[in-house]
Structure formats: C-alpha cells, structure tokens
Amino acid sequence: MTCDDTLAVLTTAPGWRKATTSNQNGCVEINQTVPGYVGVRDSKLATHSPILVFTAAEFALFRTAVRAGTVGR
Q: Three-state SS across the chain?
C-alpha cells in the first residue's frame, strides 16, 4: 500500500484517537488502523482536517524526538 492509498483509507476510517499529550489548544489525533502507517490530523477540524501520513518508522522517530525535546531546535 502506498501513502496515497493509505490517505484514501484514512479519510473515512474509524479509529481516530486523541494523542495522550494533547490539550485544548493543541490537539492532534492519530490513526493506526492501516498496518505500517500512521495518520495525523488536527482534532479541532476533525473530518475537515488535512491528514498527514507517515510510515510507522517515521512516526516512531518523530515521537522519540518529541519525547527527547529535540523537535524544533
């Protein structure tokens, strides 16, 4: 499955959940229903939000960097 195929599936897929560290001002939702990929969208916009698609490996690297505090430096 390609990123484009994954995006098409995620557009209507159930399984979106709010990230555990989200707050009222900066909320994101993730969807991991497509094996090997992670969708990310803005929870305030819900189904109207653009969806970013990452491979599971890319998302794992991003999550590690966020937890380490090295994102945006």
A: CCHHHHHHHHHHCCCCEECCCCCCCCCEEEECCCCCEEEEEECCCHHHCCCEEEEHHHHHHHHHHHHHCCCCC
From CA 28, how far away is CA 9, in angstroms rounded? 18
Q: What is the pLDDT of residues 19-44, one digit of tens each?
A: 776 666 668 899 999 999 999 998 88
pTM value is: 0.80
Q: Give the type of residue at 42.
A: D
Q: How far is CA 12 from the centre of its chain?
A: 14
Q: How many CB atoms are located within 10 Å of the residue 32 CB?
A: 15
